[in-house]
Amino acid sequence: MSQMMPEPVEAPAAPTTVDDTVGVSQGRLILRRFLANKVAVVSGILFLLVVGFSMSAIGFGPIPGWWKHDYTTLSPQTGGGAPTLSLVPEWLGGNGISLGEHPFGQSRIGIDYFAMTMRGVQNSVIVMFVIGVGGTVIGTVIGAIAGYYRGVIDAILMRITDVFIVIPALVIGAIVGRATGGLGVWLLAAFLALVSWMVIARLVRAEFLSLREREFVEAARVAGASDLRIIFKHILPNAIGVVIVAATLLAAAAILLETSLSYLQLGVRPPDVSLGLIISDNQSAFQTRPWLFWWPATFIVLLALLVNFVGDGLRDAFDPRQKRFSRRRTKERASS
């Protein structure tokens, strides 16, 4: 009787790994990479909190705020105009956590400094938004047309761009601010946006010069798509990452530009208020009342830093190849 051979046992099938990125849209991948950047996410949240706090405190437009003072009403000075904000609890020997009558103090003529600072934050955000959106739209259109058509059109548009880009932004802004500063912050920001598009135009042009040679553009031409459709439906969505990142950097620069112009008395004019104008009006009292410098300067730096951090996060999310240099990772790779 022949010996029965044992049947071969089949090895268990290796578990199939499914790539998490399969079936995930490009927008979802960008959002996932942005949310992974903790600094950018926290900066975005803090920026929204600062903007929301300033608008809820003194109101915005016809919507009233919860703060009892405004940025134009004079009040008798109390305690020499010193801040009444207290952040030390009583059990630590302080006066307790409270805002007091004038948490940021009072100006030299008795106006509540908290209301003035919140109004300055609002105006800085308005200028940032209008210049960021307006300058981005103008620069994107000019750069897209120049990069797509090339030739004579490209030469003319780029020479115009070169003329504006070699002039310092502060000089152009001073001319615009002197002419429009007294007309309100919205018109000032709109006119500044008309002279803030040059860098974005050059970046978008460079992207279009590269993308217009791709196969999908040729396929759209063969299918009979018009130039406008190819520009705005096919090429621009593939360059949107550069546009968004450049827009955030332009917005951060807009805050500093408006502050500089207002400090030079060429931006927002009284009775309205700007962070730069607050510093300019009270600079002679900085040594005796240093809080007149602390509060507006803190919000200027804070707003600019937060927007820059958000821009860095968007840049890394749209182009993960642009990773920052890490000395620790470099040493680890060299030792391995």
From TrEMBL:
A GO cellular-component term linked to this record: plasma membrane
UniProt keyword annotations, A-Z: Cell membrane, Membrane, Transmembrane, Transmembrane helix, Transport
Subcellular location: Cell membrane
Protein name as catalogued: ABC transporter permease
Annotated transmembrane regions: 39-60, 125-149, 156-177, 183-204, 235-257, 292-314
Lineage, opening ranks: Bacteria, Bacillati, Actinomycetota, Actinomycetes, Micrococcales
GO BP terms, alphabetized: transmembrane transport
Similarity remark: Belongs to the binding-protein-dependent transport system permease family.
